[in-house]
Specification:
Helix 2 packs antiparallel against helix 10, helix 3 crosses helix 10 and helix 11 runs parallel beside helix 14. The strands form 5 sheets. Strands 4-10-9-8-7-5-6 form a 7-stranded mixed β-sheet, sandwiched between helices. It folds into 2 domains: 143 residues, Aspartate Aminotransferase, domain 1 (Alpha-Beta Complex); 255 residues, Type I PLP-dependent aspartate aminotransferase-like (Major domain) (Aspartate Aminotransferase, domain 2). With 414 residues, the protein is an alpha/beta fold.
Length: 414
């Protein structure tokens, strides 16, 4: 893979992902469900296989060669991950099972050590359930109250309402950078300073943001940031919780056992330093190795090229869908990234997605783990399109051709 791609060589890139050449239902695959899970390049597959074939041993435990090699490889990924998001140090990187695991870790730590009866937490109406339900539970356990920032008709956050809620001096604001349904890009560069001025730390769900722009936690000035490997060309079952050092040192662990302790006796235990006090048990070692390979792959391919490619594809999808008179696109945010959702008039989202699948086009359907968002639009589901940089305009054209077929079927039934 060349490290400097002045022109995005799509054919070369697609060869890195052999699964793109397969067929489904006798049709050439057009995979447009990357917001759920991306495909994995050969380089990542090779890294995971190498770990299992040549270095399989536990980390932070043994003094034998394989254990030390596994430990070194995992800690190298921690260092690379810190660099990828511009964290101050590797100690601010906690490995988890994914964005959901990261947010649950933070929510449990807040409920156990920060939140008290009468405190407040803010989240929003557009959140994935993984950034809503953990905070509901944290408030339930601690006696805190959960406030919700609602959306406008365009699918953007009501920042005036946020300002009013911040006057109540909440203990945390948890917010998605990019909506997994609408693709709305929340203006965190405006939101975070407002929250900090009110003394409120900010946790960012960056699961849908990592491929769509530079993620610089120091420039963003967030207190926590969460993301998953499987949405950035890495393995499933691995993710990251970034936390400012002062916050990670303050929070109590959420899981307990081997690997996160300092000293244990039968009555009391003390815990390891950050980040290890949050990493109980054997981690997903091969997954972490794969995550590191994915981050290196993205950097070598060229992050600006990736961002530009995905923005161009989403613009093309939006234009093609917007020209149709047989469907309704959800929301019209000022800035959209990664995702666009719609419903075909007269057809359920599930039926539309199933018909497209029979034509080789893979899209998402349902509530996308964002039921409050859909209820805001008086809907129970939608079809979602989430292209990645390895997709082509021809695959989007295949989506539109599939929608033409669906329109013809509906006309024949009328």
């Amino acid at each position: 893979m060349r490290k400097d791609l002045s022109v995005f060589d799509i054919e070369t890139v697609r060869r890195d992902f052999p699964i793109l050449s397969r067929s489904v239902h006798g049709r050439k695959l057009a995979y447009l469900d990357n917001g759920a899970t991306t495909f994995v390049p050969e380089r990542v597959l090779a890294a995971v296989e190498e770990q299992y074939r040549s270095f399989q041993a536990n980390v932070h435990r043994g003094v034998h060669y394989l254990s030390e090699q596994s430990t070194e490889r995992v800690e190298r990924v921690r260092f690379e991950t810190a660099g990828f998001i511009n964290a101050n140090s590797p100690e601010e990187i906690v490995f988890t099972s994914g964005t959901t695991g990261s947010i649950n870790l933070a929510a449990r730590a807040f409920s156990d050590g920060i939140l008290q009866q009468g405190d407040r937490v803010i989240t929003t109406q557009m959140e994935h359930h993984s950034n809503l339900v953990p905070w509901q539970e944290a408030c339930r356990r601690s006696g805190a109250e959960l406030d919700i920032v609602h959306m406008t008709d365009e699918g953007e956050l009501d920042l005036n309402e946020l300002s009013r809620l911040l006057e109540k001096r909440p203990k945390l604001f948890a917010v998605a950078w990019v909506s997994n349904v609408l693709g709305t890009v929340n203006p965190l560069e405006r939101i975070i300073p407002i929250a900090h001025a009110a003394g409120c730390p900010v946790l960012v769900d960056a699961a849908q943001a990592m491929r769509h722009g530079c993620v610089d936690v120091q420039a963003l000035d967030c207190d926590f940031l969460c993301f998953s490997g499987h949405k950035i060309m890495g393995p499933t079952g691995v993710g990251v919780l970034y936390g400012r050092r002062e916050w990670l040192e303050r929070l109590t662990p959420a899981s307990f056992g081997g690997g996160m302790i300092d000293e244990v006796d039968t009555k009391k235990s003390t815990f390891a330093e950050i980040p290890f006090k949050f990493e109980a048990g054997t981690p997903n070692i091969a997954g972490i190795i794969g995550l590191g390979a994915a981050l290196r792959y993205l950097k070598d391919l060229g992050l600006p090229e990736i961002y530009a490619r995905e923005a161009e594809l989403l613009t093309y999808v939006g234009r093609m869908l917007g020209e149709r008179g047989d469907l309704d696109v959800l929301g019209s945010p000022a800035e959209r990234a990664g995702a666009i959702s719609f419903n075909v008039r007269g057809l359920s989202c599930y039926d539309a997605a199933k018909l497209l699948d029979q034509l080789g086009v893979a899209v998402r359907s349902g509530h996308h783990c964002a039921q409050p968002l859909l209820k805001r639009f008086s809907l129970t589901g939608a079809v979602r399109v989430t292209p990645a940089f390895y997709n082509t305009r021809e695959e989007i054209d295949a989506l539109c051709s599939g929608l033409d077929r669906i329109a013809a079927l509906l006309d024949n039934k009328r």
